Amino acid sequence: MSKTEVSRRSLLQAVTVGAVAVGGGAALNMAVPGTAEALVRKLPGNWDETWDVIVVGSGFAGLAAAAESAAAGAKTILLEKMPSYGGNSIINGGVFAAWDDKWHYREKLNLGTDSPEQHFQDILKGGDYYSIPELAKLVADGSADALAWVVDEGGAELRPTVTRAGGHTAYRTHAAKSGVGREYTEALRKIAEKHGVKPTLGTEVTWIWRADADPKSPVLGVEVKRGKKVMNLKANKAVILASGGFSQNVDMRMSHNPRLTSDYNCTNHKGATGEIHKFAQAVGADTLQMNFIQLYPYAEPETGLLDAQAVYPFNGPGYGILYVSKQGKRFVNELERRDVVAYAQINLGKDAKPTWSIFTEAMILPMGGAPEEIEDGLKRGRFVKADTIPELAQKCKIPSDTLVDTVNKYIQYHKDGKDPEFNKPITPAMFSLEKGPYYAIAQWPAVHFCMGGLRTNAKTQVIDVFGSPIPKLYAAGEVVGGVHGSNRLGSNAIPTCIVFGRTAGRNAVLD
Ligand SMILES: Cc1cc2nc3c(=O)[nH]c(=O)nc-3n(C[C@H](O)[C@H](O)[C@H](O)COP(=O)(O)OP(=O)(O)OC[C@H]3O[C@@H](n4cnc5c(N)ncnc54)[C@H](O)[C@@H]3O)c2cc1C
Questions:
Q1: pLDDT confidence of residue 36
Q2: Half-sphere exposure of 105 toward its Cβ, with a 13 Å CA cutoff?
Q3: What is the largest CA-CA distance in the chain?
Q4: Ligand 1 centre and the CA of 45: distance in Å?
Q5: What's the 417 CA to ligand 1 centre distance in angstroms?
Q6: Centroid of ligand 1 to alpha carbon of 274 (angstroms)
Q7: 325 alpha carbon – ligand 1 mean position (Å)
Q8: From the CB of 242, is ligand 1 less than 6 Å away?
Q9: Could you identify the atom of ligand 1 that is nearest to the CA of residue 269?
Q10: Structurally, what CATH architecture does the domain formed by 298-447 represent?
Q11: Fewer CB in a 10 Å sphere around the end CB: N or C, the chain?
């Protein structure tokens, strides 16, 4: 045994023995010695149910994983703690980055070139080169195929356009026909059901069982709570963690990024609380980049809601949308990444809420909008509409002279093909703001996405603190860290979840 191996084993054994001095049947548990948690963790004497593959979480990643493992013949259960399925995925904005699609919209609409390599480079640059390149490459290479899968096998439909969103250098962001992530979760649910798996709702995973810290020691199963009932489920082949991020857990996000206090709203569903990260850590899993937590710059200012209307400011930059402060001045290059836009807003000062996005009628369809969303947005007061800029300014309580001046300058930059103020690239697809009617929507940053999470390899195996895969433990989706570096480019999460979810489902059955 090498010196490293000796020290690694003795360290883990010391932790294990210290944590669970309860004799035979003790489970690996790296909780703090002496805590109640540490004392009670004993391996189950018998298992209530036995499955081949246990998937935790019913969002994009979990559904894709369950569909693939069941398709490969594994007896698969898909566990979901909430009373309904879908997590953040089902409420998501439906924008999906893929360099191509079966209709070749980008080419047909003359929106320039793109390639998996260009997408890959954008992911790296957009995350300040903190991404694990091998993982980012798999997303870029697999995005078009992931989109084709939900369209061809699941029946998902798209709007006939593509947009160029902040940080992307190409028009590659597709919009779901329904305008929400449900378009793809329903498609994935159908594929999974075709193979016999339905989400098992109201079933919370409360522990991951692993006997000991020997690198060869596999994960054995999970403990779950259903109502008051506690049960233990055995996994013959693998446990796949697809439990999403932890944006709703204020203590957890502040322990990694103290700036993200409860003063910030959050776009996520209530179940994005991150306990699975901790259970995985307790059985030896490594994490990375947990401090990289994204703010969505365009959430509804008072509630943090990310509804269909809040996606317009995200989809608009490639078609000429304008962002202004409540003083009527531009404050950022509209084609910038989310982190740059969000902190540009925050740095305007504590009374700067809200900022506004301004677009015209002509931009709506190209930027993936829909008349029924406009109508609904106007009815609910999410959009403000006016025939002229002074009228829009008056309705939004923005100083009219300043806004008129800002818009006139912006129109001139568009004519000149050059933005001397913020250096935004002007593309032929961008519309001028010369002609109304005009629309405005208020926006403010809200906590949105966890770039950090569990460390995995290209096979989606969860890696322990010493760099070895933990046998029979896989993870995919937002629970995984390192794909997007310091900042995820918008619309890259869906392909990430589907690409790695499918990989996890396929690999899990090989164990
Ligand atoms: C409002 C909103 C809009 C978004 N829009 C877009 C977009 O348009 N495009 C894009 O690319 N990305 C978007 N994102 C990001 C993207 O939707 C998420 O990153 C993605 O949905 C995560 O999928 P997932 O499968 O990893 O996790 P989720 O979809 O969050 O699913 C995880 C599931 O695991 C369950 N779970 C957690 N813990 C347990 C437990 N202990 N036991 C059992 N179950 C558990 C949760 O309840 C949840 O249902 C958006 C995010 C939000 C919040």
A1: 55
A2: 22
A3: 78
A4: 34
A5: 39
A6: 11
A7: 31
A8: yes
A9: 53
A10: Alpha-Beta Complex (3.90)
A11: N
Residue 20 has pLDDT above 50, yes or no: no
Q: What's the whole-number mean pLDDT along residues 439-449?
A: 98
Residue at token pair 């770039």? 451
SS3 471: strand
Can you name the residues that pair with 163 across neighbouring β-strands?
173
Task: Return the closest-CA partner of residue 457 out of 446, 473, 445, 443.
Answer: 473
User: Residue 119 has which token pair?
Assistant: 């997408």
Domain 49-85+193-293+448-508 has CATH 3.20.20.240: no
Give one DSSP letter per residue of 169-226, joined into a string: SSS-EEEETTSSTHHHHHHHHHHHHHTT--EE-S-EEEEEEE----TTPPEEEEEEEE
Q: Whose CA is nearest to atom 2 of ligand 1?
A: 92
Say yes or no: CB of residue 89 within 6 Å of ligand 1: yes
Is the minimum distance from the CB of 179 to ligand 1 under 6 angstroms? no
Instruction: Report the atom number in ligand 1 closest to the C-alpha of 60.
Output: 25
The reply to whether ligand 1 has any atom less than 6 angstroms from the CB of 493 is yes
State the pTM of this model: 0.94
pLDDT tens-digit profile of 390-407? 999 999 999 999 999 999
Cross-strand bridge partners of residue 208: 222
Catalytic residues: 338
